[in-house]
Amino acid sequence: MPASEIDSDELEELEQAAEQEELEDADLQALIDEAEAAFPEERIKELKRSVQELGIRGWVQHHVIGKKFNIQHFLIAVGVLLPKELRDSDVPVEALVPVLKAVLIRLLRQRERLAQYNTPDDAVNLIKTARNIVVLTGAGISVSCGIPDFRSRDGIYASLAGKYDLDEPENMFDKEYFMQQPSVFFDFAHSIFPSNFKPSPSHRFIKLLEDKEKLLRNYTQNIDTLEKAAGITRVLHCHGSFATATCTDPACRHKVQGSEIKDAIFKQDVPQCRVCQKRKQDARSKQGRSKKQKTTGGASWKDQEDPDEEDDALPGLGVMKPDITFFGEKLDSSFENALNADRPHADLIIVMGTSLQVAPVAELLTYMPHRIPVILINKTPILHFQTDIMLLGSSDQVVQYLCTKLGWELPKPDPVKEAVGADSEAKKQELSRHRVAPAIVEPARFDQASYIWLWPDAEADTLRCAAQAESQSDDSEQGGNGGENPDKEEEEDTTPAGGNMDAAQ
Ligand code: CNA
Ligand code: ZN
């Protein structure tokens, strides 16, 4: 996945700066004429199609590197006006490449729906014929297992409100905040630590795709390791998991199994690194001191001669932090590598139980070729990315429906596979009681021509508001009575604005 050095907000700032400049600049008009001659409309269409097919890296390699490609002309031809300091002919290519990448990302976000796919039957046929399905999952598929998601009405963010002194609920998963106050995270962590949870029918559906040799890869944003419990092997934990934990001291990085910090987590203690503690103890006894040990971490042992200096250190240093990706932490290269490996092979994308608010994983849809059909299975609609068939409701109910239509049976939960630190005896007993109710419910179509289908527990308010706002704006454009509706203003306020991907991580 391409890294851009400027994000979409910064790109907009550049464009606004350009707008404020003198538009009757004769040089500018000449540049626009040259750009239009170099990149006529048909060529631009072809280049847009090509970026959807090749991805950014492939596109740059194919069209730009070693070719006579004028980036300034291209940007103008796609409607991006840059400020004067970036329009001059002697601007180095290195200054333009980040802008080019940000513009390509913008173009990629404009995925268009594939109009030939609409119904649950189409979804069934797509799954039946697909051979390389990419499944992108999020917290929603584990909600029925008893693990709350982030953004639902009764999700983690809502439950954190007022309980902890956080400026934003997201701070609970913010690396900088963690280093200042690890105790806040560990006070809460027991409620999401995967222990005796069992996989949901949605997890088992993914396992079934794998058994049928249709699963290319499950990209999961989840950290609960329930994919492992379901027996899924072709899985990438994009945001890490509780399966292991690592010391936060960069000079130590001692790693342990997640099960080793389970007790501390359930006691709501901050798990300390044994190696760092021993080092501090040794340093103390060497200096013939016998001071009471601090319980909230210490300074990096590489930088520290005197253990007393730890008083000035970040409290989060020398703490065993579960290997889950916090806001402010970069993903390792495995996500990008997997995407590059999968993009030539994928023939269907299923997005399940995610709000697609967290970058860069949410950008998966933009980086996969746009000709690949996308089925969304989620409780709430997603409006900031175009998907082809929206199946809205609890994912367990939807996958049960799909399985029945496909003539497939979901595999039974496997009592042998464990999530992190699971108590296998208790788990076996619970699983032996577990039965999947194969009740299938027919969905209702959202409106006549729509590709959106609602199961009873779908939460489609935002969709209704969006549709209403759209019809009102159509009415007012046509001189209708949309402007006279006294509720209009209020409804427009509730219309979803779409996710801010750049701000998310
Ligand atoms: P999110 O932003 O909370 O979105 C969850 C989505 O799932 C929402 O769109 C809901 O409408 C939808 N949803 C809720 N219940 C269901 C259901 N029963 N069936 C279908 N859809 C449902 O969470 P995301 O995963 O999009 O955000 C990514 C974050 C959340 C990752 O960094 C995770 O690590 C993090 N997270 C993970 C877990 C977990 O591992 N189980 C739990 C909570 C948060
Ligand atoms: Zn350590």
UniProtKB/TrEMBL annotation:
Zn(2+) binds at residues 247, 252, 273, 276. Residues 113-409 form the Deacetylase sirtuin-type domain. It is found in: Mitochondrion. Residues 278-315, 464-505 are annotated as: Disordered. GO terms for molecular function: histone H4K16 deacetylase activity, NAD-dependent; metal ion binding; NAD+ binding. Its main location: mitochondrion. Keywords: Coiled coil, Metal-binding, NAD, Transferase, Zinc. The active site is at residue 239. Its cofactor is Zn(2+). PROSITE patterns: SIRTUIN (PS50305). GO terms for cellular component: mitochondrion; nucleus. SUPFAM superfamilies: DHS-like NAD/FAD-binding domain. Belongs to the sirtuin family. Class I subfamily. This is SIR2-domain-containing protein. It comes from Tilletiaria anomala (strain ATCC 24038 / CBS 436.72 / UBC 951). The lineage of its organism: Eukaryota, Fungi, Dikarya, Basidiomycota, Ustilaginomycotina.
